[in-house]
């Protein structure tokens, strides 16, 4: 089997160019992936914050969301 010689710098540049091209061509899909990742991080942070706070009743939550605070 033949050994393939690859210049690391050329390979790195080729991968960068390919990634940029994919992002450019699939901009909507990439946007959705990033947005979903950000939402997941925010939800994780909210859950962690909620674990260290006092519990609230369901009624209180609905009153707040309905503007009846």
From TrEMBL:
<protein>
    <submittedName>
        <fullName>Uncharacterized protein</fullName>
    </submittedName>
</protein>
<feature type="region of interest" description="Disordered">
    <location>
        <begin position="50"/>
        <end position="69"/>
    </location>
</feature>
<dbReference type="Pfam" id="PF25734">
    <property type="entry name" value="RelB_like_antitoxin"/>
</dbReference>
<dbReference type="InterPro" id="IPR057930">
    <property type="entry name" value="Antitoxin_put"/>
</dbReference>
């Amino acid at each position: 089997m033949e050994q393939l010689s690859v210049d690391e710098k050329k390979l790195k540049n080729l991968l960068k160019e390919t990634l940029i091209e994919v992002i450019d061509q699939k901009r909507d899909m990439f946007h959705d992936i990033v947005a979903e990742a950000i939402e997941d991080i925010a939800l994780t942070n909210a859950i962690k914050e909620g674990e260290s706070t006092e519990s609230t009743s369901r009624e209180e939550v609905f009153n707040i969301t309905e503007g009846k605070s």
